[in-house]
Amino acid sequence: MNAKTFGALAGLGLLALTNLRAWDARAANDNGDRPPPPHPPREAVEACANLVEDANCTVSMHGQTVTGKCRMGPDGQGPLVCALPPPPDAVEACAKLSEGATCTVTHHGRSLEGNCRNSPWGEGPLACVPPPPPPRR
After folding, report:
1. What pTM did the predictor assign?
2. Alpha-carbon span 21 to 85, nearest angstrom
3. Helix (H, G, I), strand (E, B), or coil: what is residue 85?
4. For position 55, what pLDDT does the model report?
5. Is 43 part of a structural domain of the chain?
6. Is residue 136 a part of any domain in this protein?
7. Are 17 and 127 in contact, with CB atoms under 8 Å apart?
8. Total domains, the chain
9. Mind listing the pLDDT tens digit of every residue in the chain (137 residues)?
10. Is residue 58 part of a domain?
């Protein structure tokens, strides 16, 4: 796998973790204080359109293909989406840290600070998850 392919795959995993973490935050804080988080990528929803929960799925985005598992939203609602595994760099950033610890992961030459988290479904491995981007105005 070349560096460009690895970077694209890592980007897909970070995008998925960030979007799903925002989705999880909405489920925990659905009181209208924040704008709604971004929806899961259309490709992730379409990948599970004819599948059942926990089925293997494949997402193709930005010229890359990644395999994941079909999951409902962390709140048990919403569409079934193809949940992608965290990128290896994000997992490595938390290899010797505990859940909630501050971490740094590099993506496309930029260092992003985040926290070590399990997936929104409580599954491992821990991965460095940057906060979701601020809402567009």
Report:
1. 0.64
2. 13
3. coil
4. 96
5. yes
6. no
7. yes
8. 1
9. 334 433 444 444 545 554 544 444 444 444 444 445 567 889 999 999 999 999 999 998 888 899 999 999 877 888 899 998 898 999 999 999 999 999 999 888 889 999 999 988 787 799 999 988 777 77
10. yes
Angle CA 84–24–90, to nearest 5: 45
3-class DSSP state of 115: strand
Residues spanned by the domain of 79: 3-129
Burial (0-12, 13-18, 19+ Cβ within 10 Å), 136: exposed
Q: The dihedral of CA 29, 84, 121, 123: what is its sign? A: negative
Determine the Cα–Cα distance for residues 24 and 120; give it in Å rounded to an integer: 6
Under 8 Å between Cβ of 70 and 83: yes
Tokens 């997936």 found at: 119
Residues in the chain: 137
Q: Is 110 inside a domain boundary?
A: yes
